[in-house]
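Action item from last meeting closed. Structure (336 res):
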């Protein structure tokens, strides 16, 4: 263990440069920087400033590192970069997140990230950047999919794999690809439609996590079927199919009671095909329809042609009153 006596403030920068990872948490970067200096995290943070929370070796995986302006300057010296470069690369070091007070350098570990969640980085993405140890990202949701390497990661800290390979779950990979296409084509409206569908199917999973389509996916991923962390992974294909149905309704010119009834019947038939005929999904479907009963002032379209392509596509009035423009899937959904 390094001597921690009289080491306040930065002593030296590294000869080499510790690479950034896109979206990495400041705590994760500091942890890697400490190891590159040959120090435990606590000894390294003594060179950054004084801390208000006791250092736990697992903290980079549990929470985020907050610093004030003076500590940011020290961290910049230790990393061999400017404070501005650190702030561009690490969201939590930006001005709006800095601790107040610039007289003495200080840091702390809040046990609730102010924006998003600390999610494990795909191991192959990290390795491609020259990072061979565990790293964590700040992410809007508690989970993410790496399409390039077919990996599912989340904020799980218990038993089971930290990184789940999707080699045997081609339908999940296809669903994620389709979600990205939906968001590229329809922008924020596409993201919000998926958020709605995801929230609906999550409620169905909570009532019947043992449905065969979800159970067998969990087994193929090496996860427990009824464990909460499996839900985003196993429901992905059904969520994207429901998003397509929601898109179809959102683009309807008519939203009469008869049209709504036909739509519900068609979705329920789709559910039966998934093996969810015993799930009572009527309540969620009707709630969603209630929020989408009145179309937006600007007709929703696929963006084909001229002026329409430049318009921001907007979902129904009721949806816009309940959903946030950014944040997690829960924030962006009207299914509150």
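Sequence:
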């Amino acid at each position: 263990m390094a001597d921690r006596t009289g080491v306040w403030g930065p002593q030296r920068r590294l000869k080499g440069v510790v690479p950034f990872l896109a979206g990495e948490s400041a705590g994760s970067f500091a942890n890697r920087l400490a190891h590159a200096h040959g120090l435990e995290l606590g000894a390294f943070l003594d060179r950054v400033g004084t801390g208000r929370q006791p250092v736990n070796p697992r903290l980079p995986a549990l929470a985020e590192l907050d610093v004030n302006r003076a500590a940011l300057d020290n961290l910049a010296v230790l990393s061999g970069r400017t404070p501005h470069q650190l702030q561009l690369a690490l969201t939590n070091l930006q001005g709006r997140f800095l601790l107040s007070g610039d007289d003495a350098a200080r840091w702390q570990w809040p046990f609730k990230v102010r924006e998003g969640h600390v999610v494990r980085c795909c191991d192959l993405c990290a390795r491609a950047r020259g990072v061979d140890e565990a790293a964590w990202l700040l992410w809007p949701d508690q989970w993410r999919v790496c399409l390039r390497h077919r990996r599912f990661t989340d904020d799980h800290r218990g038993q089971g794999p930290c990184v789940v390979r999707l080699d045997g779950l081609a339908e999940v990979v296809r669903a994620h690809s389709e979600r990205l296409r939906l968001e590229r084509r329809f922008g924020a409206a596409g993201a919000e439609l998926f958020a709605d569908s995801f929230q609906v199917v999550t409620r169905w999973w909570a009532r019947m996590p043992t449905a065969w389509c979800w159970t067998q996916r969990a087994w193929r991923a090496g996860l427990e079927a009824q464990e909460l962390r499996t839900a985003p992974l196993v429901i992905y294909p059904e969520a994207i199919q429901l998003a397509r149905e929601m898109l179809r309704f959102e683009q309807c010119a008519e939203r009469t009671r008869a049209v709504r009834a036909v739509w519900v019947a068609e979705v329920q038939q789709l559910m039966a095909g998934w093996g969810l005929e015993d799930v009572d999904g009527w309540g969620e479907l009707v709630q969603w329809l209630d929020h989408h009963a009145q179309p937006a002032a600007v007709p929703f379209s696929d963006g084909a042609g001229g002026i329409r392509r430049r318009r921001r596509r907007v979902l129904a009035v009721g949806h816009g009153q309940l959903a946030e423009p950014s944040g997690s899937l829960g924030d962006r959904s009207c299914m509150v």
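Note appended to the action item: Residues 1-6, 305-310 have pLDDT under 50 and may be disordered.
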